[in-house]
């Protein structure tokens, strides 16, 4: 179980714990996975991440299908 306790136990919003686990399965560190999953807690945060991802894909030359 991912902690939503805070402090030295770390913190990931309960509604975002599936995202955290998925990132951890991909081999991401605990702190990085927590930072990304917590950023997407609000609609604005998810929108911000989507725009950043789109810009990254564009810079790397990937086409949208």
Automatic annotation (TrEMBL):
Protein name: Uncharacterized protein
Disordered: annotated segments: 23-65
Pfam families: DUF7218 (PF23855)
Residue spans of biased composition, Basic residues class: 23-33, 52-65
């Amino acid at each position: 179980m991912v902690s939503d306790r805070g402090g030295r136990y770390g913190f990931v919003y309960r509604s975002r714990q599936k995202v955290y686990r998925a990132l951890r399965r991909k081999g991401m560190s605990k702190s990085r996975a927590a930072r990304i999953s917590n950023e997407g807690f609000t609609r604005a945060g998810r929108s911000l991440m989507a725009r950043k991802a789109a810009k990254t894909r564009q810079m790397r030359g990937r086409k949208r299908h």
